[in-house]
Write a structure and sequence with these properties.
Length: 344
């Protein structure tokens, strides 16, 4: 198997090169070429031919090449189709905010979790992404925009905690000087609630943000839309959240897609308030985005307001999230992996 050199930090590249009989100082040169977006080892002209040949034979330079861009006419949000080194595709989204550019990247080609409201969940699963492929999505978006990306959210295709080791490697690398140097405080991970990994993540005490996709206040309704709830019920998810808050002293964001007639009654709001009372958290209400075949409708404006008001009255911090890129299917849950080469 070829070595994924772009998932390595400087110390690891050094070890890799010295283990294979090359000088340690070459690692800095290799890393510098990676930072300059070299697409092949042949471009690394200050390396001796012997080292270049060795790398060509034993390593590869991961990529996430933009092969299609769709731009929203409503808010200038852009959706990218990235092609990975092995010909798989993932999607990502570039959002423009007053405070700068934010990119939403994918962590897997598809997703195994099967949430009923999510296009990714409906499109099956192929494989997990490497750290280098997550970084490459950010870098490709940055080069496309011609401007530095300041915030990253792991809310594209895939479940980050179903690809835990690569995601943690990504976080450590992308926030370091060996890579894009995007501070952990500017990165947010979203999970559907893989409880053991949430606890592992809390133990790392990283300064990165955590969002938890809740979408229902009780096991009966949550299991209906999120199969993962049958494995890790709400009580365990909430305990893991409390543990995370205790460990990191950081606020958690709960994502809650408002689906008409499914999870948006007054009763659901009261139960959600009871569940979250006293927790250091924020509730992000997202009128459910349209997904072909899901058969769900957004809650009416009246229901959205009633829902927020009940939460607010109970002292829970809640807002309805503005949807970006709705005309190009770039909103939460609308990214999918069903691409054929011919579609591009
Ligand atoms: N797998 C992770 C992260 C990717 S999904 C997770 O589930 O958290 C990013 C967010 O979009 C999650 O909060 C997810 O629940 C939400 N989402 C999925 N489908 C949606 C839809 N149709 N409308 C609104 N939000 C949706
Ligand atoms: Fe996977 Fe998240 Fe979609 Fe659920 S909502 S299917 S966990 S990407």
């Amino acid at each position: 198997m070829l070595t994924d050199i772009k998932s390595m930090n400087l110390a690891e590249i050094s070890a890799y090169l010295t283990d294979n009989g090359f000088e340690k100082f070459r690692a800095k040169q290799v890393l510098s070429w990676i930072k300059q977006d070299a697409a092949s080892f042949d471009e690394m002209t200050n390396l001796p031919a012997k080292l270049r040949d060795f790398l060509k034979e034993n390593a590869y330079l991961a990529k996430a090449q933009i092969v299609r861009v769709q731009r929203s006419k409503i808010d200038a949000t852009e959706k990218f189709l990235f092609e990975l080194s092995d010909g798989e595709f993932v999607e990502g989204v570039l959002m423009r905010y007053h405070h700068g550019l934010s990119v939403c990247i994918s962590t897997q080609v598809g997703c195994k979790m099967g949430c009923t409201f999510c296009a990714t969940g409906k499109s099956g699963f192929s494989r997990s992404l490497t750290a280098s492929e997550m970084i490459a999505q950010i870098r490709s978006a940055e080069l496309h925009a011609g401007e530095r990306i300041s915030n990253v959210v792991l809310m594209g295709m895939g479940e980050p905690f179903d690809n835990y080791d690569n995601v943690i490697r990504f976080l450590r690398l992308v926030s370091s000087e060996d890579s894009l140097h995007i501070g952990m405080r500017h990165i947010t991970i979203s999970t559907c609630g893989i409880v053991p990994r949430m606890r592992d993540f809390a133990d790392l005490e990283l300064q990165c943000g955590l969002s938890v996709s809740l979408h229902a206040p009780d096991d009966r309704s949550r299991s209906r839309t999120m199969p993962i709830n049958r494995r890790y019920p709400i009580s365990q998810v909430i305990e893991a959240c409390q543990y995370y808050i205790k460990k990191t002293n950081r606020r958690i964001t709960f994502e809650y897609a408002l689906i008409s007639g499914e999870n948006d009654s007054d009763d659901h709001a009261h139960r959600l308030a009871a569940l979250l009372t006293g927790m250091l958290c924020h509730v992000n209400l997202i009128p459910v985005n349209n997904v072909t075949g899901a058969g769900y409708q957004k809650s009416t404006l009246k229901r959205q307001n009633a829902f927020v008001n009940i939460l607010s009255a109970a002292g829970i911090n809640a807002t309805v999230r503005r949807t970006l890129g709705s005309d190009i299917d770039a909103s939460c849950g609308q990214l999918k992996r069903n691409f054929m080469k011919g579609d591009v």
